[in-house]
Amino acid sequence: MSSSTFKLTDQQINFFNTFGYLGFPGLMADTVDEITREFEMVWSARGGGHYGKPHDGKARSCIVPFIDQRDFLAGLIDDPRILAIANALLGEDFNYMGSDGNYYVGDTGWHSDGWHPEIRHIKIAFYLDKLTRDTGCLRVIPGSHMIQDSFALDLQKNIRKSEEVWGVHGRDVPAIPLEVTPGDLLVFNHNTKHAAFGGNANRRMFTINLCQRYPEVKIGELRQYISGAARFWIEEAYGPAMLRTAHPSRLRHMEQVMANDDELPELSRKARETMAEPSRG
């Protein structure tokens, strides 16, 4: 199937709605070499690691926004495959909510990326190294995105103290390991509990974050979400390449965020006064 004819099946949509994640083996295999080169070029231009310093393998390095730094990477949100996923899971008026690029180090404990009761947020993850359950691949707990459910609420309350409550280390919590080869795509609901265990000190991964468009009555929630990016010391939601190369069809997915990121400069200024460096995630 070509990129222009790719679409989600009803079964895939139902699976995502029920379990909170999807995997697409080989979906980006035709362009993964160029994606990887562009990934490395972003890091090279930023000193190789976190906040302009070389990546030392001791702590996660993170750049936000990430795909926004290079024309080619910015264009991924126009790729028919990305659009097909976004349109099917969020609607054709979805918002682009930014991206992050990472060198991950070691284990990442169980967590959700959000806790959104109504507005659906999704993360599309690109892993640029082959990863297995024992070498740091993403693990997810199916159904943990349904945050009104007692199962999800119990996980939210106890998963960070799994040894105390359940007598198992985080790596032994029942979950699905999503083993990947470069060119695969993983997609999950921000609410979905996920983790990684056994990884090395240089796991390459970047994401594209998208959500349903916020209704006017919930714009305050959107502004609060956007304000959270101040911890990365950014003064506007989108980076230079994303803005420079934006065309009308892309701007449709950016306009709501651009209309509500006006507090970022002041919030970022305040963050710089209290933080030694931008957030690592």
Order of helices and strands: HEHEHHEEEEHHEEEEHHHHH
Report, as a whole number of angstroms, the end-to-end distance: 35 Å
Name the poorly predicted regions.
Answer: none
Mean pLDDT: 97
Strand order of the largest sheet: 1-8-5-10-3-2
What structural class should be given to the helix and strand makeup?
alpha+beta
CATH architecture type: Sandwich
DSSP helix count?
11
Task: Describe this protein's structure.
The protein has one domain (10-211): Jelly Rolls (Sandwich), CATH 2.60.120.620. The chain has eleven helices and ten strands. The protein has 281 residues and is α+β, with helices and mostly antiparallel strands. A six-stranded antiparallel β-sheet has the order 1-8-5-10-3-2. 31% of the residues lie in helices and 18% in strands. The radius of gyration is 18 Å and the shape is globular.
